[in-house]
Amino acid sequence: MISTRLKAHFETSLAELTQPTRSDWIFALRTVSAGLIALLAAYALKLDHPQWAMMTVFIVAQPVAGMVLAKGFYRLLGTLVGGVAAIGITTVFGTGPWALVTVLAVWIGICTFVSSLLRNPEAYGAALAGYTAMIIGLPAFGQPHLVVDLAVARCAEIVLGIVCAGLTSRLILPKLASDAIISRLKRCILDLATYAGGAFSGGDPAMLSGLHRKLVADTQKLGEMRAYARLEAPSFAPRAHPIRRTIGQLLSALSAARALHSHAAPNNAALIPVRSELQSLVSELATKPGALDDTALWVARLDAIAGNARQMPDASTDQGDDRVGTITRLTIAADFAEALKQVLRGLDALRAPATRPVRGSRQPALVVHRDYGGASRNAVRAALATLLVAAFWLTTKWSEAAGTVILVAVVSSLFAARPDPVQVAWGFFKGTLLALPFAFLVGQIALPALPGFGWFMLFVVPILVPTALAMANPRYVGVATAFAINFLAFLNPHQAMTYDPGPFFAGSASILVGILLAIGVFIVVLPADPWLAANRIVRAMREDLARLCLHERVPRRSAFESLAYDRINQLMPLVQNAGRKGDAVLGGGVAAVTVGLEILRLRDASQGHAIPSETALSITNFLRGLARELLFRAPGDPQTSTVAVARQYVARIAQRNGTGEMLQIAASLRIIAAAMEDFPDFFARDRV
Q: What gap in Å lies between CA 643 and CA 250, rounded to an integer?
């Protein structure tokens, strides 16, 4: 039954990826309409490059209104900064060609560095500030007095496109990020219930692994939507922190479900009731129509299950041969029930917004990861690629090479921080190459013979509507967006279209060559290795755990869960397509959430008065040893005595028939040891 439900779930997901939905059609028609309005307004305003207004609509187009506003806002901000930079650089260095291109290349490198340290949409704005200076500054080469006019014109064209895209996204059957977050969170909860149902009943491992990966990926998308919703509606800002906390709880529940699946125990009287109740609840939750319309019943049931799991079973109850193992599994079950309960409460908080909670002044002893090494590599690569192609342009005096320089700057900066920039840039090239014949037929054959905006719509709409439909599909969004942007760039729509294939093919060739050169730069110059970036994030996660072990200030559970979510959010795009190796890293990342929560539980126990002082000292010594192992043990090295000490300590507690707090300490130690044994390389110093 569970396997059948899992299979049906994946078939439904596949159908959603391949068949346009009503929402996709609305997005496509809305985007094309906004583009036509922007172009018509650009004609009316007699802008020099009206295609930029229409291109901007497709560049910022997103299915969700908040995403359009966010991308549009940072595109405008990046354009303004780039325009000011272009004016300043051209004014100072415009008389010397080599100095001009060198300073522009350095500026692109600086913006690429900043972009690599930020997240979308802020990262997009930073990259845009870099290559916008090149787009404005290079045409002003030898004519620095024109740079202000060029900057103003470009900003006007960009603003026009952003306004048209933003207004249509809000006014024409809008899909709001605030609603999309709630809808996606509900989907995540149901997916989690499906995963837990399969995990608790021995579902198909391959399908469970795929669903586990999908859940982690969906948490990443939830985090992105959080930023978009805040720009979409300032009233949503107070809910930004609860969203982050809820995502952390979602990962905690997923980690607990995985642990229960990986360490299933033989039947015994203490485990059967809790396990049966959990399996019954998640099965009902996953299959009952409208199950999440009212969460009160589910919250009450989960609260009762968590309470029952936390009660120490009587000595007379059959617990098998491993009493501590029973307590450990009951603890994990209680953690799963509590985390799922908090996720449901988070859903309720999103549907019924409250005022911003008052936060304490004490900050958690945790740090945000910034990959300065990767950002420096991206900056050097973008600056060097731009400078080399610019040097070729200055040396050969080939006029069309200016377009090549601009494309190299755009691609090498915009895609630099992607996990696989070569693949992304190649998709951009394919979309650009595919756009070339369509643009030639429409711009060089049809429109010169049949001029006018009406004919333009007749020829362009049948091409752009399917393109926008493809942009709404995650599988094709990269190639489709490149097609739309470059179709309009090649087409270069003006009110009077003429047949002039020479400049058309020369400009098209410069664009294609520029993209290919950027791809070559990605391959040859400081090539990106996603595993190096992933290793740095994994190292940061281990350092987080070491801080939990050693730092005097103990962060709140929600603060750690939020940070752990942030780490996994960064890790996911780097390893999601790496097969079993990537699954092992993601599994270790989710397991690290469990380890961190158990460390916090041990820290709380050691600071309490319910355990003997020698026990508190033993916990402190264990955490110090654990921190040492997390920081210094290398892959392939034998595990230090830390895990062995945990196992021995657990055995001593079991021999003494400890109760209450002591058994809970033993359970935490055992959970940590099991997680480190399940993912030994993840909890080592470096990964290959």
A: 27
pTM, two decimal places: 0.82
Closest CA to 288 of 200, 194, 179, 182: 194
- Within 10 A of 104 (CB to CB), how many other CB atoms are there? 29
* Sign of the alpha-carbon torsion through 472, 478, 480, 481: positive
User: In whole angstroms, what is the distance from residue 512 CA to residue 619 CA?
Assistant: 62
Cα separation, 322 vs 320, in Å, equals 6
Q: Which DSSP string do the residues of 159-216 spell out, in sequence order? A: HHHHHHHHHHHHHSS---HHHHHHHHHHHHHHHHHHHHHHHHTT--HHHHHHHHHHHH
Neighbour-count burial of 685, counting CB atoms closer than 10 A to its CB (0-12 exposed, 13-18 middle, 19+ buried): middle
Of 250, 25, 71, 293, the residue nearest 177 (C-alpha)? 71
Q: Please say if the pLDDT value at position 4 is more than 50.
A: yes
Instruction: Choose the most confident range, by mean pLDDT, from 430-444, 525-539, 642-656.
Output: 430-444
Name the least confident of 326-330, 509-513, 633-637: 633-637
Q: Give the three-class secondary structure for 251.
A: helix
- Count of beta carbons in the 10 Å neighbourhood of residue 184: 16
Q: In this structure, are residues 272 and 318 in contact, taking their beta carbons and an 8 Å threshold?
A: no
Determine the distance from the C-alpha atom of residue 455 to the mean position of all C-alpha atoms in its chain, rounded to a whole number: 41
